[in-house]
Amino acid sequence: MKVLGIAGSPRRGGNTNLLLAEVMKGAVSRGAEVKTIILNDLKITPCQHCDACLEAGKCKIEDDMQMVYRELEEADRIVLASPIQFMGVTAQMKAMIDRCQALWAKKYVLNMPPLGNKRERKGLFISVGGRKITNLFEPALVTVKTLFRILDIAYAGELLFSGVDEKGAIAKHPDALRQAYLAGQKLTEENRE
Ligand SMILES: Cc1cc2nc3c(=O)[nH]c(=O)nc-3n(C[C@H](O)[C@H](O)[C@H](O)COP(=O)(O)O)c2cc1C
Questions:
Q1: CB of 126 shorter than 6 A to ligand 1
Q2: Is the C-beta atom of 5 inside 6 A of ligand 1?
Q3: Pairing with 180, which of 79, 82, 85, 188 sits 20 to 30 Å away (CA)?
Q4: Which domains does the chain show, CATH number per domain?
Q5: Pocket test for ligand 1, best of 85, 127, 159, 173 (most atoms within 8 A of CB)
Q6: From ligand 1's centre to the CA of 168, what distance in Å?
Q7: 165 lines ligand 1 (CB under 6 A)
């Protein structure tokens, strides 16, 4: 089983990065093959709404998103990790998500499977926010669940931590990293049903 982690934070060693790394360790402990993509290291142009994908079923912009499309096709499990920025996912994550408009077109305009084959996929969402307010994660959850639904990725759950702001502070949380490790194990175990 292949597990793809997609990190949306610009902070290396930041809170969502630490959680994502634990999820991946948990998946490895169950024999999964893992790969993590750091969006901040990539060049992903925001969607230009050129509508070329409506005919081609793929995006014509030749940048690092082409690699991300290939990795999504290869993955059995997808873990999206993004901190909350201005109540949503980061710009890095949103640019990647918007470029999945090409996969929306493939599915809804051309009636083809968005990720190209009939593999059963599941997706997990990881997020952290600095504040402690009601509905902190709601807008991001709507965005991420919409992406998963459009890509035919079954929603496998989420790990959400509010009130965590300083870089690396999640490591001081009593059991967040442990929860992440166990979530990584569970994400892969479910495939054996
Ligand atoms: C541009 C920016 C916007 C932010 N907006 C929010 C916000 O709307 N709500 C919130 O609770 N925290 C907000 N934060 C704080 C981050 O969510 C918090 O520091 C988080 O721990 C960062 O996770 P990371 O280390 O994985 O990047 C913001 C941080 C930045 C840099």
A1: no
A2: no
A3: 85
A4: 2-44+63-93+120-135+149-184 (3.40.50.360)
A5: 85
A6: 12
A7: yes
Three-state secondary structure of the chain? CEEEEEECCCCCCCHHHHHHHHHHHHHHHCCCEEEEEEHHHCCCCCCCCCCHHHHHCCCCCCCCHHHHHHHHHHCCEEEEECCCECCECCHHHHHHHHHCHHHHHHHHCCCCCCCCCCCCEEEEEEEECCCCCCCCCHHHHHHHHHHHHHCCEEEEEEEEECCCCCCCHHHHCCCHHHHHHHHHHHHHHHHHC
Tell how far the Cα of 172 is from the centroid of ligand 1, in angstroms: 17
- For 111-144, write each residue's pLDDT tens digit: 999 998 878 999 999 999 999 999 999 999 999 9
State pLDDT tens for residues 105-117: 999 999 999 998 8
In testing the pocket of ligand 1, which one of 19, 80, 82, 84 has its CB within 8 Å of the most ligand atoms? 84
